[in-house]
Amino acid sequence: MAHVSDFLEPSDLQRISSLQVFARQIVEGFTTGLHRSPHKGYSVEFKQHRQYVPGDEIRHIDWRVFARSDRYYIREYEEETNLRSTIVLDRSGSMNYAGSKTGGVTKYEYATRLAACLSYLMVHQADGVGLATFDTDIRRYIPPRSKVSHLRLIIDELEKGKPGGETEMGEVFHNLVPKLHRRGLLIIISDCFGEVAKFLKAMAHFRHAKHEIIVFQIWDRDELEFPFKGWTQFDCLEQAGVKHLLDPVMLRQAYMENLGVFRDELVKGCRRHHIDLVPMCTDESYSKALAAYMTRRLGKA
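Structure (tokenized):
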């Protein structure tokens, strides 16, 4: 069985252990990530009685109190507000790329370590965390829990998962929505390669269901700089046997222009849907990048 230490170095844990992961937006009528709600509801833990007023739902009347006092009282409860998050991890073939500046670390390996960091943080602060992995479809879904034993289950899944296959995230994400029975925080870890319009439509679906979303977009430095020189064979990582021998010098300008359009559309779309888009590059420390992002996030809350 895998352990957290297999994915995280002690220095990583030290760097991120003091950071709180919490949602900024109102989720289910309370501030997600704070462990007591300032609002009163009708679930989890009894708070107090208050006198019935017209408009209150009759089903919340405490009939035992009525029998003793001949007055109507409503039972109020204090809601549990532990954060429920689901990490959505891309296992498509494009995540298997490793460039020349990463020491052989693929985008998928980088992503699994980031997912392990986030899972550890959630469980460490008694918040629930789940995991969904996907390529052409949802491959594994682990509902959110907050026990340490549940963390080991997630780490094991991260360890044994392998990237492969095509994906169109927009279609896959629509299939994920029915599995998420409660509103919460979705943490998407992916290179986001695909049609931006379909991706954003799926994000709108999540947002309509009142989920808050963070997208950690994983890049290899090669994809951002296209440093290739001389004739190069490019292999498709999502379709076996598809290869092209090309002169990258002739392609570079068009590639960089298309890359710019893709990134601009994604940034604007995420901003429009109030989604945090966090680019991360595999030649950078994932724990340093995560710590920097969370520090900014806490500062904006």
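The domain at 4-27+83-300 is CATH 3.40.50.410 (Rossmann fold). Confidence is low (pLDDT under 50) at residues 17-45.
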